[in-house]
Amino acid sequence: MNHELRFTFVADKQLTVIENTPSLKGVLKQVRKTLRHLETNLQIKSLQTHECESLTRRYGIQVFEAYVQQNTPGAYRVFWHYGPDEIDESGNRIPIVTVVALTPRHD
């Protein structure tokens, strides 16, 4: 099932920074690939999607982490949750994935 992406204010700002930082050109390509997977196939193995329990507890909604990069210092991650779904003008449900943050891992 395809999902439409929505971005929180924070995630939108983080994506804008990545898009406008020449040294992050490679990261941007990887981020866009990850976002495409979130739209089309949440089960793809390379995302290594798993629940981020600390954020789930903090916000009271199930928040997931997907890998943008692997085995890289400061590897980027995408944090997201399901919904809220929307209804189009024909009454059809539009499944939404909300991107909460796009951040490098802090070790």
Describe what this molecule looks like in 3D.
By secondary structure, the chain is α+β, with helices and mostly antiparallel strands. The chain has a single domain, classed as RelE-like (YaeB-like fold). The protein has three helices and seven strands; from the N terminus they run βααβαβββββ. It has helices at 9-19, 25-40, 53-59; strands spanning 4-7, 50-51, 64-67, 76-82, 86-87, 93-94, 96-104. The longest helix has 16 residues, at 25-40. The N and C termini lie far apart (34 Å).
Structural class by secondary-structure content? alpha+beta
Strand content: 25-35%
- Write down the CATH topology: YaeB-like fold
Rg on CA atoms, Å: 14 Å
Task: State the CATH architecture.
Answer: 2-Layer Sandwich
CATH homologous superfamily grouping: RelE-like
Number of strands: 7
Unreliable spans are none
Our count of domains comes out at: 1
Shape: globular
Distance between the termini: 34 Å
CATH C-level class is: Alpha Beta
Q: Report the mean per-residue pLDDT as an integer.
A: 92
Largest sheet: 5 strands, mixed
Number of continuous helical runs: 3
